[in-house]
């Protein structure tokens, strides 16, 4: 049975005092969740990684980064942070290929692939994001888009590397819009992702990889999304900035694992 995972992507939000208040509340509320049923990850902005690492020290919450450099070694790369630097700060997960990075920074599939390799080389777990725009969905291109993005991310990986991935399906049209894919729509794409992994590797690997859904997940819709057979948790945006909302989402994910 795959373990549930919920990752909070704070995006460009946070201030030192606000972060402390949020983590104080979150750690208190999460303390009742059984660690055996769920992994919880917090991905703050880069400048707050050290603060959050200190705040979650000794807890079951893991530290994640919202990005990682495509450059693997120190050098003249202004503004970049390598996988080695992130690991040095205690980071365990990295979000790779988020749609906002793809659209706002022109991040290509090849660059996503390089970031995945760099993260894996430092024993970091990449959370690889895939997802279609509304125009692509309406043009019946979902399978083409998802398979292209997956191929770009995993084509150079050995099986032992691919089985360490987490893959997050985030339909671009549902990110920060208040719109959410129906449970059936989300499940259909998650099932397609598993089928794709089976075709490239094998069914054992595909059934072992953790798949997340992201796109306006909240405490109201989390349970029905996580009840779907191929959805193992969520990559959470705005709701991760509210301790009670985020805890409720984590609880729904943990219960879905218990209930099988």
- Arithmetic mean of pLDDT: 95
DSSP helical segment count: 12
Which range best describes the helical content: under 10%, 10-25%, 25-40%, 40-55%, 55-70% or over 70%?
40-55%
CATH class call: Alpha Beta
Distance between the first and last residues' Cα: 8 Å
Strand content: 5-15%
Q: What's the count of strands?
A: 8
Structural class: alpha/beta
Integer tally of domains: 1
CATH topology: TIM Barrel
CATH architecture: Alpha-Beta Barrel
Order of helices and strands: EHEHEHEHHEHHHEHHEHEH
- Computed over alpha carbons, the radius of gyration is 17 Å
Question: Can you say what the CATH homologous superfamily is?
Answer: Aldolase class I
> Reading side by side through the largest sheet, how are the strands ordered?
7-6-5-4-3-2-1-8
**Sequence stretches where pLDDT stays below 50 over 5 or more residues:** none
What is the general shape? Answer: globular
Main beta-sheet strand count, sense and barrel state:
8 strands, parallel
Subcellular location: Cytoplasm
Family: Belongs to the triosephosphate isomerase family.
EC number: 5.3.1.1
Function: Involved in the gluconeogenesis. Catalyzes stereospecifically the conversion of dihydroxyacetone phosphate (DHAP) to D-glyceraldehyde-3-phosphate (G3P).
